[in-house]
Structures are given as C-alpha cells and as structure tokens.
Amino acid sequence: MKSSLTAYLLLLPGLLLLAVFVLVPMGYGVWLSLHEFNGIVVGAWVGVDHYLNVLADPAFRGALRHTLVFAVLVVVGKNIAGLALALLVNLPLRGMRAARTLLFLPVTLNIIVIGAFWTLFLSAGRFGGLLNQTLEAIGLGALAQSWLGEPGIALVSVSLVEVWRWAGLHMLIFLAGMQAIDPSLYDAARLDGAGAWRRLWNVTLPQLRPLLFVSTLLALMGAFVRSFDVVWVLTRGGFGTDVLMTRLYNTAFRNGEFDRATAMGFIVLAVIAIVSLVFAWLARKAHLDDAGNG
User: Fold this and answer.
1) Which residues contact 73 (CB under 8 A, 6 or more apart)?
2) Is residue 35 situated within a structural domain?
3) Which of 11, 63, 177, 277 is 20 to 30 Å apart from 250, CA to CA?
4) pLDDT tens digits, one per residue of 198-252
5) What whole-number distance in Å separates Cα of residue 174 and Cα of residue 85?
6) Which residue in 227, 182, 214 sits closest to 64, CA to CA?
7) Are 280 and 57 contacting, i.e. CB atoms less than 8 angstroms apart?
C-alpha cells in the first residue's frame, strides 16, 4: 500500500494540471454550449438546440465532407510520400545525409512562408501562376487553370501542399524503422532469389507495419486538427475547401456565434474520437488476424 500511495502522490501533480487545464475547461465548455453565449455574457438555457442546429446546417455537413476527403488524400499521400522518400534516402549513396535534411526542411518552415510560396506557385493571377507558366512553356498550356480557385481542384491542391509539408516527418518515421530491420532478413531473401520488389513487399513492409499504424494515426489527427492553417493561408476556406476547423473559426469569430461554435467544437471532438477509435479497432483486428495466421 505504501508503494501504491507513493505512485499516486507522484501522479497527483499531473492529474491536477490535467483537471485544471483540460477537464474543468471542457466541462465549462459543455455548459456554455447548452446556453446562449455571445462570447461575454451567458444567456438562457437552450439545451441541445445548438447541437441540433449545427447538425442540420448544410455548411457544416459540407465542411465535414470536405474534411473527410481531405483526410483520405492526406493520409494516403503522406504515407506513400514518406515511404518513398525513406526508401530513397536509405540507399547507400553519397549525399543522403544532406538529402534527408533538405527533405525534412518543409516541416520546419513557417506556415505563412509556405502559404506565400504555394499561392505564388499555384495561383492564376497576373503576377503568379508559376505552375501555369511552366505548363505553357513546355506546351501543356491547355492544362493551366486556377489551382486554388476551382471547386474540387482547390481541395486536392491544398491536400498536396499539406502532404509536401509533412512528408519529411513521415520519411523519418519510416527511415527509423528501416534502419532497425535485421540485415539477415534481407540476406535470407537474397539467398531465396528475391529481387528488390520482393524484398520490399515481403521483408520491408511487414517489418514497418507498426510504424505504418503510427504514421497513419499522426496523419489522420493532422487532417482533422491541423487542417486550419494550411487551408486558411491558401484559400480562406473558399472554393470547396471549407473544413471543420475553418467552419468552426468562421462561426465563432466572423459570425459571432460563440455558443454555436462551442457546440460545433464538441461535435468535431466526437467525430475525431469516432474516427480514431474505428481506425484503432481495425488496426488491432488486423494485428490479431496476422498473429493468428502466424
């Protein structure tokens, strides 16, 4: 009992901080979402009316749809790009250390710098549109368009920028896993006559499966939580790129509907929790199935 008491005493400061800065504000936020609230004064009790209004709002449903599409594009893109870059920089060639640094550089850049660069590159204005100018220079001018100003295309463009921004981080995750793989597994595969693709499919990818789960979970959380900054600096949420975070921001700070925004925040939290739990359940089920087959 003495050791258990010591453990609880050591946990007590962390639990107090959790209660003060997370649990209490969250409980107060739930209470605010059940009242009229203009950001300063708490008004009358309205129950779950704000939640029902948010769920019935076509703009919110559109933002949810955009977020789900954005999440799929970003999760797939980050994992494919991160794995491809990790395979590249893991080759025993000169200059790979410098290549790793350069490929990781976008992760460290300020989002304003990223937004200014990609707006200049993807815009169709008179003083921008470097991508369109390049297409015209190589005879593909028919493909030129407003990459950030066309519904459907704008969301894909923003997703690709997000993938470019974070691919270096996912590269390091996969690279760390590759360098931890026992070389004898590759030697055995070579003795069996396996080529490079067979070694990748039968040795590298199975060994990286736990890290693939981590990479996917990070990308999934980023698609829901960190989607605001990249969308805001590129499109301000227009042209079919309005995601849950930009819809939440606009509801609170542009429309002044703080009570409705509070309810929306908890709905977004519930969506994130459901998506995370479903993904964790599927990953665990796949792990148990592999263990059973093994």
Assistant:
1) 155, 156, 159, 160, 163
2) no
3) 277
4) 988 889 998 998 899 889 989 998 898 888 999 999 999 988 999 999 999 999 9
5) 9
6) 227
7) no
Check: CB of residue 250 under 8 Å from CB of residue 20: no
Residues 103/252, Cβ–Cβ less than 8 Å: no
Lookup: tokens for 142: 């028919």
CA-to-CA distance for 106 and 101, rounded, in angstroms?
10
Q: Could you identify the residue written with the tokens 């690279």?
A: 175
Q: Is residue 204 part of a domain?
A: yes
Helices 209-225, 58-89: axis angle to 10 degrees equals 140
Give the pLDDT confidence score for residue 280 in this predicted structure.
Answer: 82
Per-residue 3-state assignment (H helix, E strand, C coil) for 13-67: HHHHHHHHHHHHHHHHHHHHHCEEECCCCEEEECCCHHHHHHHHCHHHHHHHHHH
Report in angstroms the alpha-carbon separations of 230 from 12, 60, 214, 261. 38, 19, 22, 21
Q: What is the domain count for the chain?
A: 1
Residue 99 included in any domain: yes
45 domain-assigned: no
DSSP 125: S
What is the model's pLDDT at position 41?
87
Burial of 122 (0-12, 13-18, 19+ CB in 10 A): buried
> What sections of 138-257 are H helices per DSSP?
153-179, 183-191, 196-199, 205-207, 209-225, 227-235, 244-249
User: Any residues with CB less than 8 A from the CB of 194 and at least 6 apart, and which?
Assistant: 202, 203
| Host domain of residue 102 | 65-241
- CATH number, domain of 93, equals 1.10.3720.10
pLDDT of residue 276: 85
